[in-house]
Every structure is written in structure tokens, then in C-alpha cells.
Design a protein that fits this description.
Elements: H1 4-18, H2 20-23, E1 29-30, E2 43-57, E3 60-73, H3 79-94, E4 103-116, E5 123-134
Parallel strand pairs: 1-2
Antiparallel strand pairs: 2-3, 3-5, 4-5
Protein name: Phage protein
Organism: Candidatus Rhodobacter oscarellae
């Protein structure tokens, strides 16, 4: 059986990659960032830290996964970064992610910050999403 957080990460990647408008803005979404993550564009998304807590949701055993996505943009100013943040927020706040081995309950954005990165010319957005999965064991 695939670990719930592994299946969730795969569903996040699949949801991003199927969104043509988002993919037109980013070089990809990465767990391990490649040497040239930007490709032909000026932004990309990477996975940051994640946590998991056990609990209950409407009487069911559940896992709460907090997943950080980082947006990196070399475009001048913050506009591109803000546009990508907006698209990611709506993508994961409105969608039901298809999971084969676990039951997806809901997802929503809990934190969004846009900050200048120490590397000159890079804007960094930090997004934390909370995803609830029903425990199928």
C-alpha cells in the first residue's frame, strides 16, 4: 500500500501538470529541484517541508497533511509570483484530488507569504496547504 503522503504528493503534481494555464507560467513542479528548474520560463514550484497529524474529521479517523509549496520567480517584481500563488490557491481549494488508495476529504490554503529571496532578482512565495485524508486502515 502506498503511503498516504506519497499518494497525495503524486496527486498534487498531477493536478499542477494538467493545468495548462499554470504550466505556461512555470518550468515544472519538483520534489528534487533540477539544475535548470526554470526551463524556458521565469518561475517554478518546489515542495517544501510537510507534516502529518492524526485526528478525526466528522467522526472518521483522518490524517491532516500540511504541505508547503514554494514558488520561485525571476520575473521583475512580484506580479508573476502573485499570479502563480492565486492559481495554486484556487487549484487546491476547489479540487477534489483523485486518490486510488486513500480517501480525499478536503484541501485548503492556510498560509501564503511572498518575500524577497536572498538571491538577487528572485521572488519567493511560501504556500502551506492543509489536506485531510480519511484513514482507510
Amino acid at each position: 500500500m502506498t503511503a498516504p503522503d506519497v499518494e497525495l504528493q503524486g496527486a498534487i503534481v498531477a493536478a499542477v501538470e494538467v493545468d495548462a494555464g499554470l504550466m505556461a507560467l512555470i518550468g515544472g513542479i519538483y520534489d528534487g529541484v533540477p539544475e535548470d528548474p526554470y526551463g524556458a520560463v521565469t518561475a517554478y514550484v518546489s515542495f517544501g517541508p510537510s507534516t502529518m497529524d492524526l485526528g478525526e474529521f466528522e467522526g472518521l479517523r483522518a490524517e491532516k497533511h500540511v504541505v508547503q509549496l514554494d514558488v520561485w520567480s525571476r520575473a521583475v517584481g512580484r506580479v508573476e509570483c502573485k499570479d502563480i500563488v492565486h492559481r495554486l490557491k484556487h487549484l487546491f481549494s476547489e479540487a477534489v484530488l483523485p486518490l486510488d488508495q486513500n480517501a480525499f476529504v478536503r484541501g485548503h490554503l492556510t498560509l501564503s507569504r511572498i518575500i524577497p529571496d536572498p538571491k538577487d532578482g528572485v521572488t519567493h512565495a511560501i504556500l502551506q496547504f492543509e489536506f485531510e485524508l480519511e484513514d482507510q486502515t
